[in-house]
Every structure is written in structure tokens, then in C-alpha cells.
Amino acid sequence: MRVVFMGTPDIAATCLKRLIETDAQIVGVYTKPDKPKNRGMKMEMSDVKKVALEANLPVYQPTTFKDDAVYEELKALAPDVIAVVAYGKILPQRVLDIAKLGCVNIHASILPELRGSGPVQWAILNGMNETGVTAMYMAAEMDAGDIIEIRKTPIEPFENAQSLLDRLALIGSELLCDTLKAMENGTTTRTPQAHDKATYAPMLTKELCPIDWTKNSRQIIDHVRGLDPWPVATTQLDGKRFKIYAVRPTEKTTDQAPGTPIALTKQGLEIACGDGEVLLITQLQADGGKRMAAPDYFRGHPIAL
Fold it and tell me: What is the model's pTM?
């Protein structure tokens, strides 16, 4: 079966690695163009491109599919299936119509919940206990196609977005390969989504970062782990800005105002939050500094309590 793969970040790279191990004939890999990174502005290729080049697969990096030459180039590959995983580009209908057996998308949520670009992070931010991966036929509307299969998994109480993403990538890679085999055999099923039950997971921005200490401890814990590793929760302590990477609940209560530092212990910095609860900051990073354990940082930088 001739497959064109489209994807960009690490979850897509994991799926491509697994697909390479199968008997699928990967005739082309599409990924977003290289982009400058960090202060040196050195051009960096996507995770998918790195995997494709290592496997000597042809790589295509168009900026748009509206260009007729780009469309014809893809059409000439004559794919039976186009497999899409976190590509980051909208595919016009004429592209969706190229593949003989259809275009399949792997999406890291239980659709129709959390359509959009940040389903893994928003599952945690929303305090959900379960998520999953959906294989679906692609439609013109984002993440709205007919469902082929859903595989679910619990969200562990303290895992962050990166660890959850890593687990979902493995689930998604197996689901993709199983789905392509079913498409080849003509055994897939199609279940229309309940569009009236759709929820959305918009792109993450740095405006989400500041912690609202008036929320309860569980909400703040979900906020911190949902934004790790990017864009990372932040707060002000002693007039300084910190990135907060890990917090833990305590059994303590307080009448101090939310956001007030209460005590520094061997485990971390205790902070008052909503409902009179107390949270423990265990890992942080000062602006311009390194990520480190909270007790280690405050040992050298005392905080007013």
C-alpha cells in the first residue's frame, strides 16, 4: 500500500517510526518547513523530518497546498492513503480527495472532545481523568471526520503533558498501523461524530501561564502539569518571576491570602491557595536561571516569609 505521511512534532515522529517498521510503502513524507530557533536563529528541522531523512524517505515541505504545483506533486505520488498526525496545516478538499482509500488522521483525544491543536494539554488543564487517541477519516472541518476507532487511557494524577503525550504517541502509533492495515483490507467502520457534543482545545499561549492562586489545590496542580513542558506555569515570588514545574498537595490549611508564601521545608515552598489549602512548590526556575529543586534555590536565595 502506497502511503503519504504528514506530520511535524514528536508524536508524529513516533508514529512515523512505527510505520517504517511495517510493510507499508511510504512514498513521501510531508512536514512543516524548517524554522529558526533560539537566539542564534539556526534553522531547525522538525522531528518528523529527522526520522524521514534517517530512513532515506523523500521529504516535502510546502508552505501551502493552494499552489497548483504543490498539489500536482502530491497527486503524482499516487498514494492509496494519506496518513496525518499533528501536521499543523489545513488540507483543502482537493488534497483529501487524492488518496484512493482516503485520508486518515490520528488525534490525541476522545473525539468529539477536545478538537484542535492542544488536546493533550487541555485534557489535563480541564482536570479530566481519561483521554485517548482517535483514528478518523478526515473531513474539510477540523477534527470532525467519521471515527474509525478510539483507544482510551487513564490520565495519572500527577503526570505532566509531556509524559501523557509520550504515552499517547505509542498508543497512536499502533492505532495508525492497525488502521492502515484495516483500510487495505477494507474492514474499517465509520461512525459519525456527535457534533453537538464537540469541545475544543485551542492553541496554547503564554497568556495561560500565570497561576491563579485563588483556585483550589487540584486546579492549580492541573494547571502546572498541563503547561509542562510548554509554555510552563509562572508566578511572582518576592517580586521575581518564576516558572513553576512541579507542585504537590499538602494536608495543611491556612487563613493566609492566596499566593502568600507560608513556609520553606525540606520538600519545597508552601504557598496558600484557594479554599484555605496549602500547596508545595517542589521545582521551579527563576528568570535567567536553571530549573532546580525549590529547596536548593531558596537555600541560596532566601525568601521573605
Answer: 0.95
